[in-house]
Design brief:
Number of strands: 22
Bound molecules: thiamine diphosphate, magnesium ion
Helix content: 40-55%
Strand content: 5-15%
Radius of gyration: 28 Å
CATH class of the largest domain: Alpha Beta
CATH superfamily of the largest domain: Thiamin diphosphate (ThDP)-binding fold, Pyr/PP domains
Largest sheet: 6 strands, parallel
Shape: elongated
Number of domains: 3
Strand order of the largest sheet: 12-11-13-14-16-15
Length: 689
């Protein structure tokens, strides 16, 4: 056979991506063929000629990241992973000789257990850098990845040791562009001048309902220029030379992120579906596939055809380039290990999601104090003590650091900015959603990120928090002002249902500590998580610091719930369960009940999730099944508590929104008081006044 020209092999590779995508969607009888067909050349040009990625080492820390924010176009990514010969990692993160995505996986697109789920899922498929599908999230993640890249360079690169200089590419669409999250993320990226970030916008004028004329008429280029981005246009997605030039324009830019706007035709090549919304989300159909393949000059009857020369071509381009870059990096890293062993060790620990030796050596202990301090304040002290010993713990808040107490105040911390890439205090601005999405991107690049805001605004970032859990990322969220204890700011700022809502997310550990020492323990638990996110719920108002000589040790936090105080008059007759700021109310009620000879137990319950993981025996020790007289106290809604209250228990908590007033009055108004707890306790043991 005659040797193919570069143009011919490129076209063959592009048509292979297109036809694999059509065939897989058709076999699954569901999926989104149109965007992969249109974007095949866009992605081909990037992967073949630009992306620095070694298919044999898909976890190489300095690899370029490619994110498919348009997660519905997952077959584009799966085709690329297959054709590029990306190798699967084993459970320990080591490379194997198995393909990450086999041809069988493509044939099993969207089927149970395949490496090709409907939308790309991090952890399920090697080479998928982040879970996408909820539009906007991939864009948000990409900003965090770019921040992490700059920060890693700022902290760890040394003269002659350019360990980190990776670029982050995100493929996005009209849907992403319409989402608020994307705007927040783009604004932050522009402000931070993240020149390692490139978004490739599939400007195809089509979404699900039809033409973008229906709902989207803004001037995206002007908007992005206004946000501080470089904007590059590509008039035809099939024009490889212009695409190549656009990527070079990105690489040459050193002071801002780049948006490449590519005009494409959804379902390109399909005689009856190209350019229509029906190419977006349904199989093309056998007949139309045959016509489309004919239009590509492809054998009409062939299914899942991968010409041998295509994987070989990717191997020659992406593979060789990536392998060479990675091999050079490995040598560089060996030399770095010799010269900077401490820094190299940090990088390795980071990549293993480990903590450095002595990370919790300076964990503060707080003396008993009736006046006490707010858990947001103790949290700030604990965070600072831990962050000093965990150099890659970094984060910030959505413009609330003075309130959330999340600023790192020690001298070497510094502010991350366009001019200081090594700073550990991030300033996300008033952009909760972008903050949480960026945190996920940062966690995916091995740093340990935290973000903070008022608990009531957790609703603004909830979709990203859900994805932290779905991806099993150890992202940390610090939520302060966690109840009506906010007081005068009123019901707009008083969380009511947020605790229940956070607990509803599978895999998210929610911790609501009751005093300063529980807060220290909560942080300790939080940092020890390597594969799940944690949300801390902390108070604005002061809470007494319990005398641990009289109460059980705060280490009980590690088990989710523990007996803080127990009956001094025989077996407990009533159990008071409480979390956070309401534990001190339960403690006061305990004293009154005990004084009347009613055996009472106080269970502090900072985390439902951790408690549920304990042995049955431990759980029964803390909450003996024989004691059905139970009062739960929490300044939130009842949802979730019935599990511990059974049919007979009583809930003392919120029954609606709060009010703007001094917080003590709001507690009174809601009936969350010591007297009420005592009365309910007595009623349950048949000793009502
Ligand atoms: C947050 C969110 N809202 C809605 C959807 C459902 N959805 C999936 S794709 C899509 C339209 C996307 O349009 P575009 O990004 O232009 O993709 P194209 O049709 O051009 O491939 C929508 C609304 C989603 N996945 N995520
Ligand atoms: Mg579109």
């Amino acid at each position: 056979m005659e040797k193919m020209t570069d143009d011919q092999i490129a076209e063959l590779a592009i048509h292979t991506i297109r036809t694999l995508s059509m065939d897989a969607v058709q076999a699954a009888r569901s999926g989104h063929p149109g965007a992969p067909m249109a974007l095949a050349p866009v992605a081909y040009q990037l992967w073949a000629d630009v992306l620095r990625f070694d298919p044999a080492a898909p976890q190489w820390p300095n690899r370029d990241r490619y994110i498919l924010s348009s997660g519905h176009a997952s077959m584009l990514l799966y085709s690329l992973l297959h054709l590029a010969g990306v190798r699967q990692l084993d459970a320990a993160g080591r490379g194997t000789d198995q393909p990450a995505v086999s041809l069988a996986d493509l044939k099993n697109f969207r089927q149970f257990g395949s490496a090709t789920p409907g939308h790309p899922e991090y952890g399920q498929t090697t080479g998928v850098e982040t879970t996408t599908g909820p539009l906007g999230q991939g864009c948000g993640n990409s900003v965090g990845m770019a921040i992490a890249g700059k920060w890693l360079a700022g902290r760890y690169n040394q003269p002659g040791f350019e360990l980190f200089d990776y670029n982050v590419y995100a493929q996005c669409g009209d849907g992403d562009m319409m989402e608020g999250l994307t705007s927040e993320a783009a604004s932050l990226a522009g402000h931070l001048k993240l020149d390692n970030l490139c978004w490739i916008y599939d400007d195809n004028h089509i979404t699900i309902e039809g033409s973008t004329d229906l709902a989207f008429s803004e001037d995206v280029a002007t908007r992005f220029r206004g946000l501080g981005w470089q904007v590059v246009g590509v008039a035809d997605a099939n024009d490889l030379n212009t695409l190549a030039a656009a990527y070079q324009t990105f690489l040459a830019c050193s002071d801002r992120p780049t948006l490449i706007m590519v005009r494409s035709v959804i379902g390109y090549g399909s005689p009856h579906k190209a350019g229509t919304a029906s190419a977006h989300g349904e199989p093309i159909g056998d007949e139309e596939i045959a016509l489309t393949k004919a239009a590509y000059g492809w054998p009409e009857d062939a299914k899942f055809l991968v010409p041998e020369s295509v994987p070989a071509h990717f191997e020659n381009r992406l593979g060789r380039r990536g392998a060479a870059a990675r091999a050079a990096w490995d040598i560089l890293f060996e030399r770095y290990q010799e010269k900077y062993p401490e820094l190299a060790n940090q990088l390795e620990q980071m990549q293993q999601r480990q903590l450095p030796a002595g990370w919790d050596a300076d964990l503060p202990r707080f003396e008993a104090d009736a006046k006490g301090l707010a858990t947001r304040v103790s949290s700030g002290q604990v965070l600072n003590a831990l962050a000093k010993n965990v150099p890659w713990l970094l984060g910030g808040s959505a413009d609330l650091a003075p309130s959330t107490k999340t600023l790192l105040t020690f001298e070497s911390a510094g502010d991350f900015s366009a001019t200081n890439r090594a700073g550990r205090n991030l300033h996300f601005g008033v952009r909760e959603h972008a903050m949480a999405a960026a945190l996920n991107g940062m966690a995916l690049c091995d740093v340990r990120p935290y973000g903070a805001t008022f608990f009531v605004f957790s609703d603004y970032l909830r979709p990203s928090m859900r994805l932290s859990a779905l991806m099993r990322l150890p992202t940390l969220l610090v939520f302060t002002h966690d109840s009506i204890g906010v007081g005068e700011d009123g019901p707009t700022h008083q969380p009511v249902e947020q605790l229940a809502a956070a607990r509803a997310i599978p895999g998210l550990i929610v911790l609501r500590p009751a005093d300063a020492n529980e807060t220290a323990q909560a942080w300790q638990v939080a940092l020890q998580q390597s594969d799940r996110p944690v949300a801390l719920a902390l108070t604005r108002q002061n809470l007494p610091t319990f005398d641990r000589e009289q109460c059980a040790a705060a280490a009980g936090v590690q088990r989710g719930a523990y007996v803080l105080l127990d009956s001094t008059v025989g077996e407990p007759k009533v159990i008071l369960l409480a979390t956070g700021s309401e534990v001190s109310l339960a403690v006061e009620a305990y004293r009154l009940l005990e004084a009347e000879g009613i055996g009472t137990r106080v269970v502090s319950m900072p985390s439902f999730e951790l408690f549920e993981e304990q042995s049955c025996r431990y759980r029964d020790d803390v909450l003996p099944p024989t004691v059905s007289a139970r009062v739960a106290v929490e300044a939130g809604i009842r949802q979730g508590w019935d599990h511990y209250l059974g049919c007979t228990g009583t809930f003392v908590g919120m029954h609606g929104f709060g009010k703007s007033a001094p917080f003590q009055e709001v507690y009174q108004d809601q009936g969350i008081t010591v007297e009420r707890i005592v009365a309910e306790g007595k009623a349950l043991v048949g000793m009502a006044d």
